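Translate sequence into structure tokens.
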Amino acid sequence: MGLGVLEDRHMTRPPGTSKLGEEGDPSFDAASTVDLKKDGDIILVPQPSDSPNDPLNWSMVHKNAIMFILAFSSGVTTSLGPMISPGLIVISKQFHVSPDMVSTFMVGSILLFTGATTFFTASGANIWGKRPFFVISTLLLLISNIWGTFADSFPSLAAMRIFQGIASAPLETLVTSTVSDLFFVHQRGTRLSLWGVMLGTGVLLGQIISGYIIESLGISGTFAISALIFCVILPLMYFVIVETTYTKSRSTRFDEKRPASRASSIGSTDVILKGDDSASESKESYKSQLRIFRGRLSDDSFWRGVVKPFPLVCFPAVIFSTLVYASFFCWLLMIGVLSVNIFSAPPYNLSPAQVGLTNIPLALATLIFSPISGWMADAIPVWMAKRNGGMFEPEFRLVLMLIAIPFSTAGFIGFGISSAKGLPLAWCLVWITMHSVAVPFASQASISYVIDCHTKDANQAFVTINFVKAVMSFAATTVGNGMLAKFGPRDLFIGIAMLNLGISLLTIPSYIYGKRLRSWVARSDWANRI
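Result follows.
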């Protein structure tokens, strides 16, 4: 048993288990690792080819630039949903529509249609590459915000939000798989944390800024400012975000000294293999890299890819990551929606701009703890791997849940009781900030875990995760205000705390039995047919 992770009697190294160092494991002799490429004493997983066109071999400056632009664009895109939250009551009064109807079509619909569209964009990205979807998505988001700027009726706003949700899909779901295209396993946590920072601050800062814009310029002003931001993002997307999908083989053979059942590593594409002889391959020109369409990069069926995320939900790692990520994100969004009603009513009586300002401590918590969680997501597993004979297990990522679980549970209960008793605003903000602290740790644990377990299927796995998140968020924003009125903040948020705690405690069996479950999936005929 490796640090609490139960060994599997069928496969010593099921997909996800990898060798990060050479010390302490008798199953690896010097000959088995001498030719493998390393970063210090860490064996690179996956092993890069010798080709200059392999994204793993690109300069760190180039890779980080791609990651930063995609993370920033993803954060801005994610902010489009909740940025309307401070103005929900304003829209309700302006167009004479019920608050639940407003939250459904202004917040819930964009999430739902984003989640539904990801089935098609993820499948398409696997076949035609990610670049065309990133560029087209940015262009359509620019158009949607121009539309929102001039929309003069609630039906027009509602239709625009649906269109915006469809356009948002690539930037919400393809970034995580781009991380696995560009970075090695021991580098992914910090890059995912950058993405997490942008997502978290996008959700929260969007509401802070939009609160002032709504008071000064009205609802249309928020979309006008967003359109200007996408005017900046579009050229960056076109000139910097080149295709990261690498279609050529990174290997020619397994190490003959290793049994086939033990050669698996971080997913079927991340096995530790000998490098191929591709050093003579000429580097693709920048002009060629700027092509939007490169033809088919895969012979896979588009429609098979569309339906693939559905059976993936049977994979234990995907089930766990889906429930945890969707739960934590959904409640963060729900707090943003419900706090509008709570803080706009007595005894707080806050204006839209003041409601937006209540997100400042949450945003600060995200900015501080997202980088910390990203560093920990890499540092802790490497530290644990060194104490596990140099063997890395994806389950080591789940240690971050030890921070996420108590903070989120206390945050929900504290906020529910504080707002129900009408305690000073500072108390309410302290408690909801605790949940904001928990979110990056839960997100890091769940997303990095599923990427490590199913790298090849990362696109479709995140589609599953995002769709469940979208459905949960749509349901929460649709019935949230009604449930708040019926049960009150105390009972509602205590109920949310218990539900979130129950989901979070799935971490325990996932950690203990995760390796056996990965082996079961790898050996299952039905899983191999997916």
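Note: The chain has a mean pLDDT of 86.
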